Amino acid sequence: MPKAIAPARIACLDFSLMKTKMKLGVQIVVENPEELDKIREREQDITKERVQKILASGANVVLLTGGIDDMYMKYFIESNAMVVRRCKKTDMKRIAKATGATLVSTLANLDGGESFEAASLGHADEVVQERICDDELILIKGPKARTASSIILRGANDYMCDEMERSLHDALCVIKRVLESKSVVPGGGAVEAALSIYLENFATSLASREQLAIAEYANSLLVIPKTLAVNAAKDSTDLVAKLRAYHNASQTKAEQVNLKWFGLDLYDGVVRDSVKAGVLEPAMSKVKSLKFATEAAITILRIDDMIKLAPGPDKDPEHSYANAQRSGALDG
């Protein structure tokens, strides 16, 4: 069987190419032993005809979710075609979507026969079998319908590979959020510090008890930059104070408005321009986190009553069952 096919015309089949057998419950009475041999030959020819129809459509790469008999494998080898058996159905769906193929579950047509149309084939620049580490992988390069990529993670053990997969998944989710929101904000606690300064100034303009609530909300926003500094083993008090001074200057002095992009640099323990450093966050994630945290706090504050269990019986030993029986309190 060839190791590389270029250009590739891919057939995705959701069935197996095994020897056809009669279904359970079917009984055939044979009077002539020669007819039994003809039945066996016909069972082999049914799958052989299916293979020939697949090859006649121009397919040179066949992907199967089931197995294939060795006796039918030779027809693909003679036609210089590649066959891959027992592929995962989830992988088959992705391959079909990327190459433009149709995942075929049966060859039956409306006329009562069997056929395989060339329109069901997918196309790619090359399908090649390569050995990476200890595994043999089938690589589909240059799919025609959609641009698709695969990332191969290699590590010393399964735990390292799992950790790499989680980190990569988080990174891809961040990119997804950025593309959804189409906007980013500076990271490193810059948003929380700027909101805290703005809300503190806004609270002083109110002459009601709402001032206290807004001031507490502004103070609670500083938990994020404080936690970032503590996790990096830095002086959170000093760093957050510097960060608040930068953002206060950006909001009160027009010539220092560029200081609003500043956030924490947890490697060196300083305050730096997060935009120039490339430390950014999706705006959608930041807005949702603030909304959810606020809703959770409001839900807790709405609880104004507590349900307590009734106090248990008196544990005084003088009122025990033994003392009551001795004193005759239980007598009628």
Describe the protein's topology:
Layout: E1 4-5, E2 8-13, H1 33-56, E3 61-64, H2 70-78, E4 82-84, H3 89-99, E5 103-104, E6 122-132, E7 135-143, H4 158-181, E8 184-186, H5 190-203, H6 210-220, H7 223-231, H8 236-252, E9 262-265, E10 270-273, H9 274-277, E11 280-282, H10 283-301, H11 321-327
Parallel strand pairs: 2-3, 2-5, 3-4
Antiparallel strand pairs: 1-6, 2-6, 6-7, 8-11, 9-10
Q: How does this structure look, described?
A:
Strands 1, 2, 3, 4, 5, 6 and 7 form a seven-stranded mixed beta sheet that branches. The chain is an alpha/beta fold and 332 residues long. Helix 5 packs across helix 8 and helix 7 (223-231) packs across helix 8. It is flat. It has eleven helices and eleven strands.
- Indicate the percent of residues in helices: 40-55%
Instruction: Average the pLDDT over all residues and give the rounded result.
Output: 86
Taken as a percent bin, the fraction of beta residues is: 15-25%
Shape type? flat
The N- to C-terminal Cα distance equals 99 Å
Q: Output the structural class.
A: alpha/beta
Rg, Cα atoms, Å: 36 Å
- How many strands, which pairing sense, and closed or not: the largest β-sheet? 7 strands, mixed
Following the backbone from N to C, one meets helices and strands in this order, namely: EEHEHEHEEEHEHHHHEEHEHH
Number of helices: 11
